[in-house]
Amino acid sequence: MTTAAQRKTDIGPPSYEQFLPPVIKQNYGRWKYHEILRPGVMVHVARSGDKLYTVRAASSRLMGIERIRRFADLADKYCGGYLRFTSRHNVEFLLTDQSKIEPLIADLARLGHPVGGMGNAISAIVHTQGWVHCHSAATDASGVVKAVMDDLHEYFVERKLPAKLRVALACCLNMCGAVHCSDIAILGVHRRPPRVQGGLKRICEIPNVIASCPTAAIRPATVNGEPTVEIDEANCMFCANCFSVCPALPLADPLNDGISIWVGGKVSNARSEPTFSKLAIPFIPNNPPRWPEVVTSIRRIVEVWAKGARPFERMGEFIERIGWPRFFQEAGIEFRKEHIDDYRYAGLSYKRSAQLRH
Amino acid sequence: MAQSGNNGTPLLDELEKGPWPSFVTQIKEQAAKNAMCKDLLALLERSYREKVGHWKHGGIVGVLGYGGGVIGRYNDLPEEYPHIAHFHTMRVNMPSGWFYTSASLRTICDIWERHGSGLTNMHGSTGDIILLGTTTDQLEPAFRELTEAGFDLGGSGSAVRTPSCCVGPARCEWACYDTLHLTNDLTHTFQDELHRPAFPYKFKFKCSGCPNDCVAAIARADMSIIGTWRDDIKIDQAEVRAAAQAGLDIHRDVCARCPTQCMEWDGNTLAIDDANCVKCMHCINAMPKALAPGDDRGATILLGSKAPIVQGAQLSAVLVPFVKLEPPYRELKDLVQRIWDFWCENGKNRERVGELVQRVGLGNFLEAIGVEPLPEMLAYPRDNPYVFYEEYLEAEGDEGAAEPAAQ
Amino acid sequence: MAVTSETVADAMYAMIAEYQGKKKLKATDLTKAMIEKFGEAECDRQVCKAAIRTLIDSGKCVYTYFGGSYIELPHAEGAAQG
Predict the structure, then answer these.
(1) What subunits make at least 3 CB pairs under 8 angstroms with C?
(2) Do the domain assignments include residue B153?
(3) Which of C57, C59, C67 sits opposite A245 (nearest CB)?
(4) Closest chain A CA to residue C20
(5) Model-level pTM?
(6) Are B328 and B354 in the same domain?
(7) Could you tell me which residue, A6 or C5, shows the higher pLDDT?
């Protein structure tokens, strides 16, 4: 390979320093405090007295280059060409001239990007690829997110929630992203065991496939004289781990794929320790294009929390206080066998006291 | 040819309605000038109709010399959707903190206009710039242009994944160490481990500047580096009083919400028993003008978080309660190397570090990587009496003592 | 005294060729096998790393991904065939 020598490799990402606006370079590490001035707009004040205004706008995460170029144009027009993105797919414009905030927001509105997601609000939903590009998706990602955020839009552009609300969606149990520690997690689930395809041995290594199963539900088998595997369906919990290792074991199924809803997780250390989200609704069938049952369920959960929570109480802290039985009752969620854990350490989730509300 | 554009996209069109930015509009905008996006729109409409995805995972495509950064994708109906028969993703390592200039974004857009679908994610879950959809023959040319422009690919596979961080000292008064500098430094230090998969499975670094953990390090990084401090919270009493006057109920909403009840407010002065403060950030979040982290700043290093696949989800657990983090971060990198050595030697295929620790036990793991066990590593000490003592005493001349039991 | 990375690369290549289609090998599998074959005094992880790089950069082997990363002989992508 003669070209190998001329190629550049291992150069790593460009240094962030070249992308920092002058006001940040001058006040790097010397910020004093910040204030949210209005939904989606905050000011950081440096010890020097310098001020940096941030305008946070929603994006669709999946964006064409034309839209990114429009963002670049806005950065040129209002921010000396500087902008950033957040860990939740929002775009942030970094201004030093307060008088430019209003015209920037107006331009963003014309482009269809609401400003908000700061403080006691819902921020944009972190999500995965779904049917747009994923091989193991049990639901779409972008479509569900669009439908849910259309509905919860008021909570993005205003600050009327008791605390922040972090929602995330993963289209299968692989969970690209921190779905499992969100106030509300929307999780795509398969419910039909993998169907073993003919010729499995030609694509997959059988010992590897067997080893991939966390519950030992895959066994060697022989079909028509050819080595393959069989699935002990009673022991399958639909993690799709085998499918990641072996494409000849598809699980996707229109009738059985859908969405589960999990609540009460958080990653922040504020007040209570970081914790996983817990199962609220085991299964809602996929109902594209707008998943109305998912949208309604989530709104109900949000409203139960918004109405009952004390200031600063995140979803999980609120539920801990009122107790899960009352949460299920108020959210109108039917309690089912699936809510009871039966995997490792399941016993730790059993109620081991007589402290109950009657 | 796919029938895209002919029979329309009635289901997807429903997702152009409503106030939230529409991804469908984005795909349509690109479909007007890119055949790949036209096919993608048609295939996605089909998925919406059939309620099932149509993608297959590739395992081989990439750029020469790298084992990561490209995710192979093929659709399962290539005859009908030929322009996206191959539709691979390129992960491009973002700059720390996701800062850009308009010029740098336009450069990436121009490259992706020449060599791909023109669709992106800003950004993927790990943090990379996701260039969504191109054909195998365009991978090398796109890679060449990206590196010419100063960008490189991110990680995938059994390798270091693209490290990411919060906005840090660039725009946050709470940053307890320089998250951007550390992230950039680790990324450059471990380029080989990022591009050439040599581990049992993936390894993620995430750097949050304070315990608010804005990049969810504790939930999704094998090594979670979370800023904290050791000295006293800084108090501006005048600003505390101003916050009270502005309507904050300091007793109810600050003191009573403190997890260790280490604060008292007498209506005039806020007193903090800092020895009992666990650095949760609540009071500081509630009064950003009045309170701030102390000056003796550093980080807590936690290990092992992951999503459910394979053995179940985990949160990271404390490995180093406090460390000063200053360049060249030698102590941290030595620790990382010792962890990797043990993991490469003992990890099973697709076993994350957190799962390995569960399997061998934290005590044995600490011994192997040469870290002293500390009470800070536990929520509470064991409550089960089945202790595997490794040695026992024998009285001198105790000829009759039984041989140590066989293992 | 120490074995060269070229020698290790040749031995790795032979092993990969032998297992091709039967068992996918990871970088850690190859490294452990080579240290066992040549002995710890002769061969270490750095030499193995260099050997893998030689195999990959020359195009004799490729990285593959099937739920985890492996090193294999170049072959057609299964998923690419309709």
Answers:
(1) A, B
(2) no
(3) C67
(4) A205
(5) 0.96
(6) yes
(7) C5
